[in-house]
């Protein structure tokens, strides 16, 4: 599962360096202290109560970051599960969301060095 630092870096990149939403990510994962891996039973489901709490405390943009945090955690869980179930897992996804809500998805299995090079090249 992504660490606090990884979630913050992802938010910082998505907001073009304006906000890492650290307090939001800390709040989301705070139950981990008591619940361990089961902490996602809380604060990790899109519902009106949590959505309003996030919006009230951190603003409308934080709601977007909250939803991405949930989605990313679930993608990591799906990756780990698929690796266990299928014996291999795709680790590189390209997802496009078209205006009418349709999703276009491609996926590949890349080596760690290929992934590092791919993302290093995107940063340069």
How would you portray this structure in words?
By secondary structure, the protein is mostly helical. The chain has two domains: 1-86; 90-124, no CATH class. 59% of the residues lie in helices and 10% in strands. It contains six helices and two strands; from the N terminus they run αααααββα. The protein has helices spanning 4-14, 22-29, 32-35, 48-58, 60-86, 112-123; strands at 92-97, 103-108. α1 runs antiparallel to α2 (22-29) and α4 crosses α5 (60-86). The longest helix is centred in the middle third of the chain and has 27 residues, at 60-86. The model has no long low-confidence stretch (mean pLDDT 91).
Topology record:
Blueprint: H1 4-14, H2 22-29, H3 32-35, H4 48-58, H5 60-86, E1 92-97, E2 103-108, H6 112-123
Helix pairs in contact: 1-2, 4-5
Average pLDDT, to the nearest integer? 91
Structural class: mainly alpha
What would you call the shape?
Answer: globular
As a percent range, the share of helical residues equals 55-70%
Strand content is 5-15%
Written as H for each helix and E for each strand, in order along the chain, the element string is HHHHHEEH
Number of helices: 6
Unreliable segments (pLDDT under 50, ≥5 consecutive)? none
Rg to the nearest angstrom?
16 Å
Provide the number of structural domains: 2
Total E-strand runs: 2
Instruction: For the record, give the distance between the C-alpha atoms at the N and C termini, rounded to a whole number.
Output: 26 Å
């Amino acid at each position: 599962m992504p660490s606090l630092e990884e979630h913050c870096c992802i938010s910082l990149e998505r907001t073009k360096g304006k906000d890492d939403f650290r307090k939001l990510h800390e709040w989301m994962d705070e139950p981990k202290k008591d619940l361990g891996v089961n902490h996602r039973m809380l604060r990790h489901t899109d519902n009106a109560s949590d959505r309003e709490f996030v919006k009230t405390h951190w603003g409308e943009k934080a709601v977007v970051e909250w939803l991405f945090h949930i989605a990313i955690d679930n993608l990591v869980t799906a990756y780990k599960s698929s690796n266990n179930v299928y014996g291999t897992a795709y680790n590189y996804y390209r997802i496009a969301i078209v205006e009418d809500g349709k999703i276009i998805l491609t996926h590949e299995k890349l080596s760690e060095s290929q992934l590092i090079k791919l993302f290093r090249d995107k940063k340069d």
